[in-house]
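Hey, can you fold this one?
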Amino acid sequence: MGAEQVAVADDIFDRLDTNGDGVLTADDYRASAERLLQSYGAGPNSPKARALIEANQALWERQAELVDRDRDGRIRREEYREWFASLPASEASSGAPSGSPEVMAVLHAQFNVADRDGDGVMDLHEFTVWRALKGMPSQDAAAAFELIDSDGDGAISWEDFSGAGSVHGLAAALLYRPEPA
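Sure. Predicted structure:
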C-alpha cells in the first residue's frame, strides 16, 4: 500500500475513532452518528436520527465482520489498513466499498440529515456545511457539488449523489481533492 493510500486509510480511521483510543468499536460508530446529529442540533429520537444511528450500527457490524480478524470487537489501525489495502482501487479511493449497502445507507441517512429543509435535495450551502463537518474545505466542497450536480440545476438529489458515486466513485463527494495544477 502506497503512502497516499495509507494516509487516506488513516484519515478515515481517525475520523471514525471518535474517542481517540486507537481502536474502532461499535461505540465509535454510534458516537460518529451522534456527533453529526449534534452538529445539526438534532436529537437522537427523530426518524432521521434513528435512521442514521441504525445505519452506522449496521456499518459497524459489517466492518467488524470483514476487518476484525481476532473477533475481539475492536478494529486496530493495522487491521483497518490491511483491509483497506485489499479493496479494489475504485473502493479504496473512497475508503468504502462503493457497492456496500451499509455504506450507502449511512450516506443516505447523512444526506437526509444534511437536507435541513427536508425538500429532498441539497443546495450548495447545505452540501458545503455537510462536507465541512467531515473536514472538506469549502472550495473542494463547491467543486464536488459542481461535479455531482450534472444537470447544473443548483441542487443535488439523492439520485444525483448516488449516481455521481457510480460514475466518479464515492471520492467525488466524500474526499474530493482537486488534481494538482
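The mean pLDDT is 85. Let me know if you want another pass with a different chain boundary.
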